[in-house]
Amino acid sequence: TQGVEVPPAPDFSILDKHERIGLCFSGGKDSLVVLDLLRPHWHRLCIYRVDTSDLLPETQEVVRHAEEMTAGKVGNWCEITTNARGWQERFGMPSDLVPFDCSTLGRALVNGAAGPIHLAPRMDCCGANLARPLISRMAADGVTLSIRGTRREDPAWGWCATMEATGPDTFIDGATHYWMPIANWTTAEVFAYLQREGLPIARYYQGEYRHSGPECATCTGWWDEGRGKYLRKFHPHIAGEYHYRLSRVQSAIRPTLDQLHDEIADLVAPQEA
Fold this sequence. Notes:
alpha/beta; Rossmann fold; 7-stranded mixed β-sheet; 40% helix; 14% strand
């Protein structure tokens, strides 16, 4: 990030249009930048954070830093605690691939509880333990402006397309307005800001492990996050649990992958005489 120029602070005039303002804080790099940028307006904010009960220690450290940094200076902190692992026991372990006989309907129709383990699409778990509890609580509190660190470089930016745009970085869904103040920032600019301001950068953003901060340490979905190598080096105990859980998912999906392989092979096999 050497030589990377930090963009100017965003225009905060949108805050004057709202009385109840919420900042979504995950403990990740982007939400930390937004939190710091809003420093002159902390007294107007309620900071919302969801704890899935499966956070990495590095994320917890950033959250503690943010709480200490804002102590006595923000309108309020609202922590929403969910139990992702408990949800998974009931509705299925998250997976990027869900064979029919591992789904809720498939287990009921084909094998029941005696069949393969119960799996669920990864976003089902995220929705139940992250997104919906956060949105519901903010709505119940009467928040009309929700501020997020989502950027256009993020895969999550696609979520914005589901809402009505009211400006380049603002959207509306029902009674709630959403503002993404660093929407146009690059990842390099985010890190340059954190370094310039002396803010903590979690270890999983550094060196060869530089990637998105995991929401849940032992989530069995999100295979593209690259958690395995990181956990094995820095958190071997968590890595062991993660390996066990992933192995169960692998065993459950392998028969269906084998069926797919066989079906494709039949299509390309030489025609019988």
